[in-house]
Amino acid sequence: MKTLVICSGGLDSVSLAHITAKTRALTRLVSFNYGQRHLKELDFAAEAAARLGVPHHIIDLRPVGAALTGSALTDDIDVPDGHYAEDTMKITVVPNRNAIMLSVAYGIAAAKGDQAVATAVHGGDHFIYPDCRPAFTEAFDTMQKAALDGYADVSLWTPFVRRSKADIVTDGAAHGTPFDRTWSCYKGGAQHCGRCGTCVERREAFDLAGVEDPTIYADPDFWRAAVAQHGAS
Question: Which residues are recorded as binding Zn(2+) (predicted)?
Fold first, then answer.
């Protein structure tokens, strides 16, 4: 099935791109610049597209992102440290981000003759992000089938939506994902901070999967205390 992958350049979406390339017909990667402070992630998406030999479309959503105020990813608000599932991480929500990106991706898929749009939302996202939950993805796919009725038949593929990030690491490793060429940290520094929710989740996922983590973190040991604190809360 000809499949477009929405790829941020992060561990999840780059793994999905590699899995799609080996199990389906990967047609293209689509990335979005919405003014995120960790814009460097798009460089890793571009690398993935080149490595997999497919076109890479970067869609400029900066004016849209500027209007979606109140998120630590787009505003001058500090990205909090700690476990991903803590209440404090809700400040990283960009309202309706996935719905907007998926709408654009479906349009591109329909225009290019692709049969599916793949996105790497996963079970660990459900607590914080409502547009990563199964109820949303299923309803969105139904809505898009109505929107494109009679023009194109495009379906949504979310293989991780009921699975964990550790599962993604396991599957990504099995399909040759170069994890050191992915970017997760929301702070967008020279290296992964090791303290923000995505860094803690990333490090924990490798540990749970029993896969060596090649990532260099500014604070490589913080994740243990964050995980322990979350487990005790």
Answer: 185, 193, 196, 199
201: DSSP letter: H
Q: Is 176 annotated as a binding residue?
A: no
Q: Which domain holds residue 109?
A: 2-78+93-179
193 is in an annotated binding site: yes
Terminal-to-terminal C-alpha distance of the chain: 44
Query: Does the pLDDT at position 80 exceed 70?
Result: no
- Residue 122 belongs to some domain of the structure: yes
**Which tokens go with 179?**
């994890």
Residues paired with 6 in a beta bridge? 30
Residue 12 — pLDDT band, cuts 50, 70, 90? Answer: very high
Q: How many domains does the chain fold into?
A: 1
* pLDDT > 80? residue 16: yes
Is 14 among the annotated ligand-binding positions?
yes
User: What is the DSSP secondary-structure string of 160-182?
Assistant: TTTS-HHHHHHHHHHTT--GGG-
Note whether 192 and 1 are within 8 A (CB).
no
